[in-house]
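ugh ok fine here u go
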Amino acid sequence: MNNRQPLKLKLTNQERGYYSNMWMMANSGDASKLGGQQAVMFFRRSNLSIDKLKEIWKISANTSNEFLTKDEFYIALRLIAYA
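structure:
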């Protein structure tokens, strides 16, 4: 478990709706978190390198290295868009 301060992300209503749809597409199980394997399969659709996705995971995964919360997932999506 990490002891870092959680990152804060301000989203417009349009972004929140879009990211929420992405969350539902990626997450077929527990609504409160997205497992690493599911996240990797979803994020690989971005065509970013595995190394770049690992960097994004390290920045986003504040709660655990094994899953992302919804807010952490949103941060990862934003970072993927920037990359």
